[in-house]
């Protein structure tokens, strides 16, 4: 497996006009950038989730106090906001952990995706 990976890296480095070591170090450094991108996605999803959640709660309580018949719909919207927001944040967080904790695995995975 190691020989196959090294041959793939050598071919890719040759196509790019660089050395294998430099290519590998650039890919590992790129993992840090990917971690920052996934952190930004977590912030975006958490912000959207929070806004929809708080808005739904406020509208739901206002509608409930005014005997508004549609307050149940706002409860459903709030529920789906929680499910979608938590799922999205967990998905982004798992990718962030992979990139941040094991950048070599991420680099290897990116190489294998490129080759396939």
Write up this protein.
By secondary structure, the protein is mainly α. It is built from 4 helices and no strands. It has one domain (2-115). The chain is 91% helix and 0% strand. The longest helix is centred in the middle third of the chain and has 46 residues, at 20-65. The protein starts with a helix and ends with a helix.
The count of domains is 1
Helix content: over 70%
Task: Characterize the quaternary organization of these chains.
Answer: single chain
Structural class: mainly alpha
Task: Tell me the major beta sheet.
Answer: none
Rounded mean pLDDT score: 80
Number of strands: 0
- Terminal residue distance: 15 Å
Unreliable spans are none
Q: Which word captures the global form?
A: rod-shaped
**Order of SSEs, N→C?**
HHHH
Number of helices: 4
Question: What Rg, in angstroms, do the CA atoms define?
Answer: 22 Å
What fraction of the residues are assigned to beta strands by DSSP? under 5%
What attributes characterize this protein structure?
116 residues; mainly alpha; rod-shaped
Secondary structure blueprint with pairings:
Blueprint (H helix, E strand, L loop, with lengths): L1 H15 L3 H46 L5 H31 L1 H13 L1
State the gist of this model.
It contains 4 helices and no strands.
